[in-house]
Structures are given as C-alpha cells and as structure tokens.
C-alpha cells in the first residue's frame, strides 16, 4: 500500500471534485463541506490505513438541467482521463441513474447519482457526488527528543 500525507490525499480529492463540477456545468447550489479522511478499516479508532473522501451534492437546479449535467459526465469524464466502470441504475427503491468512474492518474474514484425531486419528503432534485481516494499509509515521522526514551546506557 502506498504511503501518502493526508493533506495531499485530501487536496487530490477536492481537485477531482472541482473538475467534476466543471464537467457537470450546471448552475445550482453545491454543498459546502470539504474532503475528510476516514480509516479504511471498520475500527474508527485506527488512524491508518486511511482514505480521503468528498461527498457533496448539486441542487437548486431544474431536473432536466441536472440530467444534461449527468450526460455531460458520460462524455466528459472519459475525455478527462476517467474510466467509467458503471453507467446504469443504482438498484435502489428509486432506481436512480448512477455513474461510477476511476481515475488512475488522480488515484481516485467517483460515484455519481441523479435523484428526482420527492415533494412528499421535501427532497429536491440533485446530483449526489462522492469522490474517494484509495487507501494509504501515513508517512513515518521521526520522534522528537521529548518522545524518545532516555538513553539508559550512556550517562
């Protein structure tokens, strides 16, 4: 498994998200929070190995415009070096359109889903995007003098 600094992995995921938003090219509102890191294991107490991910949504745009954005992704992602590994329905109750793609160059994958508005639940139409890095180990950091054990063999 590759070793990588968390800041670099987070920056890669956020840059990929920005590029995907450019390809979608729909005027709407995007959720604000940035990328996070999570442990690759199910144990949240483990700091590594870890991955970076950036979940966000694009909403406050008409559904037909969001559909056009999804179609732009079908052509724009491969032109931008992504390999689409799934383009179909997600199998959920709403059976939403889904694109899953990988970028070896960026070392990330993306899962994009197009959701219709559900008025009864007051849920707007939206494109839901999750960009995720592969798992990495943290680089080793040398211990500071305060962290090093005392040298008991030399006075």
Describe the structure.
This protein has 155 residues and is an alpha+beta fold. It has one domain. Helices cover 23% and strands 30% of the residues. The chain is built from 2 helices and 7 strands. The protein has helices spanning 6-24, 63-79; strands spanning 29-30, 36-39, 50-59, 83-89, 97-103, 108-115, 126-133. Strands 1, 2, 3, 4, 5, 6 and 7 form a 7-stranded antiparallel β-sheet that branches. The longest helix has 19 residues, at 6-24. The chain is globular, with a radius of gyration of 20 Å.
How would you concisely characterize the structure shown here?
The chain is an alpha+beta fold and 155 residues long. The protein has one domain.
From the structure above, extract its key features.
30% strand; alpha+beta; globular; 155 residues; seven-stranded antiparallel beta sheet
SSE topology:
Blueprint: H1 6-24, E1 29-30, E2 36-39, E3 50-59, H2 63-79, E4 83-89, E5 97-103, E6 108-115, E7 126-133
Antiparallel strand pairs: 1-3, 2-3, 3-7, 4-5, 5-6, 6-7
């Amino acid at each position: 498994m590759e070793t990588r600094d968390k800041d670099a992995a987070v920056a890669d995921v956020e840059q990929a998200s920005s590029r995907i938003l450019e390809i979608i090219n729909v005027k709407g509102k995007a959720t604000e929070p940035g990328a996070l890191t999570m442990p690759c294991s199910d144990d949240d107490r483990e700091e590594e190995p870890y991955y970076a991910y950036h979940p966000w949504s694009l909403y406050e745009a008409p559904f037909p415009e969001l559909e056009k954005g999804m179609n732009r992704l079908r052509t724009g992602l491969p032109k931008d070096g992504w390999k689409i590994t799934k383009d179909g329905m997600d199998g959920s109750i709403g059976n939403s359109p889904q694109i899953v793609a990988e970028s070896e160059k960026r070392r990330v994958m993306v899962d994009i889903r197009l959701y219709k508005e559900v008025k009864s639940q007051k849920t707007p139409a939206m494109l839901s995007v999750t960009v995720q890095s592969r798992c990495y180990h943290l680089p080793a950091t040398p211990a500071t003098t305060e962290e090093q054990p005392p040298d008991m063999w030399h006075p």
